[in-house]
Automatic annotation (TrEMBL):
SUPFAM superfamilies: Histone H3 K4-specific methyltransferase SET7/9 N-terminal domain. InterPro entries: MORN_2 (IPR011652). It holds the Pfam family MORN_2. This is MORN repeat variant. It comes from the Bacteria.
């Protein structure tokens, strides 16, 4: 980040002026007042393209100017009648603005300073041959507020800052305008970062974080398949779930859905959806990998005639009978005290 140094800027230009004053031969010339310059007649579009003359010749040297009862002072280098080199101005004995010129056009950094005792930049602009390419804006303490980048007369990137931290970014990718968001915890740690399509605010990717800096969630959208994946993590860094989405037009559960055991990362459940509707096998597992139960859905309806529930050792402990439409009509469980199966009807 560019931070101008006030004393160095002033000292540099004072040395520059002294060099001109002390020059006894060659092209050296005592600084003169801008009021003594005369602009030649020309039809150029910009005034900077019309050279200034002094005593009938194109002016090369340093021109100075006082205004507002000498509260304002400006000094600018000229070459062959055009502003060329360094320029600075002061207001009430404080640095007001600095700039670099080349052949009459701004070229390099132009800096405007806050009218306060801090001496901090208010804004900084970067030019190339008179065309603005970048722009920074600062508060009175020198903390950046915003940044913009230009290509020709088009703004191609824009960043807003919060307490000096990137907050909102607007930019283009292959001609498409996008935006990136960053949000923070009160202590300044990054809480989330995400990227959106500007036109319809469709989320392309996102990451969120715990206060300890570990990843909390991660989302990615695939524009080719029009699907998304969301992964969640615990504060210990272990993966908790993996969810797949489709857009129709909003994001809806679609495809495989997984959860994981915190203790060892084994699959805890596996489900399958078709645009928000249960469709396929649904299974749950113990953390040792042993199946707990599974059922099959077709268009939201359980089609199994029987469902078994198993303990961690693989023994069936509950058996449910269904009518083929997802309704349980009978349930059995193993009674350890009686050492036998107990069956009852759920329709009575």
């Amino acid at each position: 980040m560019f931070v101008p140094r006030l004393n160095r800027v002033e000292s540099t230009f004072i040395l520059l002026i002294n060099a001109w004053l002390l020059s006894a031969c060659g092209n050296g010339q005592v600084p003169i007042s801008e009021d003594d310059l005369n602009q030649t007649e020309c039809d150029a579009q910009y005034q900077s393209d019309c050279p200034e003359t002094y005593r009938g010749k194109l002016f090369t040297g340093i021109a100075t100017n006082y205004a507002y009862g000498k509260a304002f002072y400006r000094a600018t280098q000229y070459q062959d009648g055009l502003e060329h080199g360094y320029s600075f101005s002061t207001l009430n004995n404080q640095l007001n603005e600095t700039a670099w010129y080349k052949a009459g056009k701004l070229d390099g950094k132009q800096i405007s300073y806050h009218p306060s005792s801090t001496g901090k930049p208010q804004w900084v602009r970067l030019y190339q041959a008179g065309v603005k390419t970048e722009h920074w804006l600062y508060d009175e303490q020198g903390v950046i507020l915003s940044y913009k980048r230009f290509e020709g007369d088009k703004e191609v990137e824009s960043i807003s800052y919060e307490k000096g931290r990137e907050w909102r970014l607007y930019y283009f990718v292959d001609g498409e305008k996008r935006q990136r968001h960053k949000d923070y915890y009160a202590d300044g740690l990054l809480e989330s970062e995400s990227e959106f399509i500007y036109a319809d605010y469709k989320k392309l990717n996102e990451k969120t974080y715990y206060r300890n800096g570990r990843l909390k969630t991660k989302f990615n959208f695939d524009r080719v398949t029009n699907t998304g994946i969301l992964e969640t993590y615990g504060s210990n860094g272990k993966r908790r779930s993996e969810q797949h989405y489709g857009y129709n037009p909003l994001n809806t559960l679609h495809g495989m859905q997984l959860t994981f055991c915190d203790e060892n990362g084994q699959v805890a459940s596996r489900e399958h959806y078709n645009m928000g509707v249960e469709d396929g096998e649904f299974a749950k597992y113990h953390c040792n990998g042993q199946l707990i139960s599974k059922r099959t859905y077709v268009n939201g309806v359980v089609t199994d005639k029987q469902i078994k529930i198993y303990d961690e050792n693989g023994f069936a402990v509950v058996i449910k009978k269904l009518d083929g439409k997802g309704n349980i009509i009978q349930e059995s469980y193993f009674d350890d005290d009686l050492s036998k199966w107990v069956t009852y009807s759920t329709t009575d």
